[in-house]
Amino acid sequence: MEHQEQPDASHESAWETALAQLDEVAELMGLAPGVHQLLRAPKRALTVSVPFRMDDGSTRVYQGHRVQHNVTRGPAKGGIRYHQDVTIDEVKALAMWMTWKCAVTGIPFGGAKGGVEVDPRQHSRGELERMTRRYASEILPLIGPERDIPAPDMNTDEEIMSWIMDTYSANKGYSVPGVVTGKPVAIGGSKGRGGATSRGVMYMIFSALRSRGLAIEEVSIAIQGYGKVGGRAAQMLHDAGCQVVAISDVEGGLYNPKGLDPEAINRHKQGLGTVSGYPGADSITNQELLEIDCDVLVPAAVEGVVTVKNADRVRADIVCEAANGPITFEADKVLNDRGIFVVPDILANAGGVVVSYFEWVQDIQAYFWSEEDVNDRLRDILERAYGEVETLANEKGLTLRQAAHWIGVGRVAEAHLTRGLFP
Ligand code: NAD
After folding, report:
1. Are residues 67 and 201 located together in one domain of the fold?
2. What is this structure's pTM?
3. Which site in 17, 153, 218, 314 is 20 to 30 Å from 89, CA atoms measured?
4. Ligand 1: which of 153, 276, 320, 347 to mutate, most ligand atoms within 8 Å of CB?
């Protein structure tokens, strides 16, 4: 047979991964071809030019995007990312995953995502504020509490959400807290939102440990990415009695088989802005972290870090995807064949959107809940979703990812078929 060059799956983009996951589950569940075709493309994608004044008086212009993948089950919902590598295709993938994430957890939102092609490390806070306000103005026709509700993602935070809320409100002439989530409590944020994604990751790790018959106090954990999600997850898992043996950020990683102390690392990071150089551990690379001998691996940084090139070297028993899309479609098959138990992103990191939903509900009702209520309801929703996914996986012989997509895609398809096609 003639030799045919195979595509290099290690270069699979986030969008290719998202489409391959949808196509696979559409075939498994016998999804109606019309609905499948409809779900393969986002409903709306807006690319905007974002000019803003630099501190020295010059002008800089970046591209920004906002994509709404689907709004059939409710308003679009999804974070805004600031990163130099943002592309429209990446934003489309992240928006599609948001659709399934909301559906599999039973949250009445559709999926969206936004991004600006900026390296925020190159800008002062003042420059970022002006850029954010201009980006918010440019996507203003798409967003709103009944339309599309942004939230923090990589390199965006509570303060950036405040600027978006303020820009939107100034345009309306009155305060509209429900236009964003993940904002400070002082302007209508929810208690518990800051740590919600990490708390959800922890609950999903505990559920996976129960499925595998492992005890919380006996497991060692490696976490890639030490930001809002990974950093807080490290602290929560450490406090719960797990041994966090490796962590990393974009500068590099730390490893100590006897366990790391997140509080001491946080103090080190506060001073230097990175975990690198912390004295109580060996330095490792991000690549080495993925291959550490541990029970649970938690990728909590960027997409596509586990590919066909390194999937056979992952040594964890469980991989819990705190980041969106850290494992490519092909690498997922390798992990599954090797018996590695993967908790998929649309379940593992759904804690953020669940508490964003709580924040939106509290804003609309102007009635605010205690942190205990928030955490208890978060746990209920995530554990129920995990249970439904695991039951379907066992019934049909699927992976957790396939089952989670089956349920998520199924609920969106049902909503489409129930509403009918306009006109
Ligand atoms: P963040 O900006 O707060 O932190 C990102 C961390 O990853 C930082 O420590 C950074 O140094 C590190 N990092 C960046 N590039 C890296 C690389 N190439 N290799 C290794 N480390 C790298 O972002 P975040 O909000 O913690 O988001 C992390 C992931 O979690 C993203 O995939 C995001 O989409 C996902 N997520 C976030 C939320 C949320 O509520 N913030 C919710 C769901 C999913």
Report:
1. no
2. 0.97
3. 314
4. 153
